[in-house]
Amino acid sequence: MSGHSKWSTIKRAKGAADTKRANLFTKLAREITVSARTGLPDPDANPRLRIAIQKARQENMPKDNIQRAIDRAGGGADGANYDEITYEGYGPGGIAVIIDAMTDNKNRTVGEIRAAMTRSGGNLGESGSVSWMFDLVGLIVLPMDGQDEDELQMIAIEAGAQDVAVEEGSLEVYTDPAELHTVAGAIGEAGLEPTTIELIKKAKTPMQPDTETAIKAIRLIEKLEDLDDVQTVYSNLEISDEVMAQVS
Predict the structure, then answer these.
(1) Is residue 99 part of a domain?
(2) What is the pLDDT along the chain (248 residues), one digit of tens a residue?
(3) Of the candidates 46, 41, 47, the residue with the CA atom closest to the CA atom of residue 73
(4) What does the alpha-carbon distance between residue 111 and residue 122 come to, in Å, rounded to a whole number?
(5) CATH number, position 166
(6) Within a domain: 50
(7) CATH number at residue 65
(8) How many domains does the chain fold into?
(9) At a CB cut-off of 8 Å and minimum separation 6, what does 35 contact?
């Protein structure tokens, strides 16, 4: 979603001491298990698994939990019957929303998502109704830490970045999905340590509604992310500094 760092800042501020961490680890473990099962259980040979493990490490998920999730892929137990489904729709003010879910009960999942959307003034749409508004891209986030902005941007561009942007004290580096790990590796060789390496769905044209509508949209995204079957939520919402001040 637009303003990746701003959204991350909001979540950190609201959930730093939150009991939702166990739920986060469950979702991370599910992604690791499914990634290992759909490819190879070796992160060096399975890019999706490599990204899942990196994300788990970024969230300080214990190594034992990560290994158990990988081992579970070959055990035929948890995660064996999960379907990956993407839902699309509109939130308050016409904000476009994409919801990636993993579920063992499609009826339950779509019911919960539809209820959250409807109660927040939104609605589910047909497949493809908003996905055309987004691009799948690689994202690498580098903390500025007082370093020269132009120098960091040059390092990223020379590493193969397609685009860069400065957000909330970090440099967001965007790449072709297939080049994510190549670019991340080149950045690492330059002595920089990313805080995020992942694939995201980036809005082509971010939308910045009025403050009231933006806050309603954020509340909807939070409700969706709290659902057990929802892995990731993307939107074209652009978060203004005024909204940031009110919600974080």
Answers:
(1) yes
(2) 445 656 666 666 565 545 567 788 889 999 999 888 887 888 888 888 999 998 898 888 999 999 999 888 876 555 457 889 999 999 999 999 999 999 989 999 999 999 999 999 999 999 999 999 999 999 999 888 878 888 889 999 999 999 998 887 888 999 999 999 899 989 988 888 888 888 999 999 999 999 999 999 999 999 999 999 999 999 999 887 787 777 76
(3) 41
(4) 14
(5) 3.30.70.980
(6) yes
(7) 1.10.10.200
(8) 3
(9) 46, 48, 49, 51, 52, 73
Q: Which two tokens stand for residue 16?
A: 């730093």
Contact in structure between 173 and 139 (CB atoms under 8 Å): yes
Q: Is residue 6 part of a domain?
A: no
SS3 content of the chain, % helix, strand, coil (to 5): 50, 20, 30
Residues shown for the chain: 248
- Give the model confidence (pLDDT) of 100-149 as tens digits: 999 989 999 999 999 999 999 999 999 999 999 999 999 999 888 878 88
**Chain centroid to CA 69: how far?**
19
> 3-state DSSP call for residue 171?
strand
One domain, residues 214 and 107: yes
Under DSSP, is residue 93 helix (H, G, I), strand (E, B) or coil? Answer: helix
Question: Do residues 63 and 162 both lie within one domain?
Answer: no
Residues 32 and 63 in one domain: yes
pTM value is 0.84
Same domain, 216 and 156: no
Residues 98 and 211 in one domain: yes
Q: How far apart are the first and last CA of the chain?
A: 17
Give, in order, the Cα–Cα distances in Å from 84 to each of 91, 108, 140, 208, 212.
22, 14, 24, 30, 33
99 with 120, same domain? yes
d(CA 24, CA 17): 13
Domain that holds residue 27: 19-72
Beta-carbon count within 10 A of 177 CB: 12
